[in-house]
Amino acid sequence: MIYQTPREETVAVKDVSFDVEKGEFVSLVGPSGCGKSTLLGCIAGLQQAQKGSITLDGKAIDNNRHSIGYMLQRDNLLPWRSVWRNVVIGLEIQKKLTEENTEYVSSLLKKYDLWQFRDSFPNRLSGGMRQRVALIRTLALKPQLLLLDEAFSALDYQTRVNVSCDVWEILRRENKTLVMVTHDIPEAVSMSDRVIVLSKRPAVVAKNVEIDFGANRPNPIQVRSHPLFQQYFNTIWKELVQ
Ligand code: ADP
Ligand code: MG
Predict the structure, then answer these.
(1) Is the CB of 13 under 6 A from ligand 1?
(2) Which of 76, 151, 153, 182 has the highest CB neighbour number within 10 Å of its CB?
(3) Which one of the ligands is nearest to 35 CA?
(4) 2-73+144-241 sits in which CATH class?
(5) Is the Cβ atom of 4 under 6 angstroms away from ligand 1?
(6) Is residue 63 pLDDT above 80, yes or no?
(7) pTM over 0.90
(8) What atom in ligand 1 is closest to the CA of residue 198?
(9) Which of residues 165 and 74 earns the better pLDDT score?
(10) Do the beta carbons of residue 56 and residue 19 sit within 8 Å?
(11) Hey, whose CA ends up nearest to atom 23 of ligand 1?
(12) Domain locations in the chain?
């Protein structure tokens, strides 16, 4: 993927190739500016690379865009809409406000402790709750694959750890596939089945690190005190500071 401006060309991503299994959680980590957001943008179909291909279930991603949900650092909730009207906005735009979909959204709000806030406005919610609302808004469209770009970095540390744990549990329970970008190694290790370490720009895959905490994997908070946690951290850290 090359960005062209009148003054210069920037090769953002070069030779990156990887597969993600259904249900797998994968993190992309790498130096700032190495092309992580670009890569996610390409997967989301928001931008087009000059070369290469991206497929979902064997079909070009362009024809599959509706099965992808994308979440950014800012939750982009609309302040003048209630929680309910925020979470159904995608369904409204796509004219999919069916009874079935409305029920699904209600069930998510109930399951994840937001039902009693459905008529509140976003400014009444904590950062963590807002991020859960943003996640439910994304899940409302029933994406198969979720893309998270530094989705927790606007939150303070404690909230960040809690929200990433909530999001992890929700996505696992809803059987989603996750590709996320983060610059926080503990966050990557705590949430992923695999961490892909990218090189400096233009990004190539520097290392694939399988994260295995056994069959009954502890949640992202508990796993931080697992004996293997520091070992995975060190492996990734060494690769990044080279
Ligand atoms: P990361 O998310 O890893 O920090 P990005 O994917 O945002 O990196 O950016 C990769 C490189 O591409 C950077 O050098 C950045 O300056 C450049 N870049 C990103 N977006 C644009 C753009 N719209 N136009 C020109 N250059 C861009
Ligand atoms: Mg980025």
Answers:
(1) no
(2) 151
(3) 1
(4) alpha beta
(5) no
(6) no
(7) yes
(8) 3
(9) 165
(10) no
(11) 3
(12) 2-73+144-241
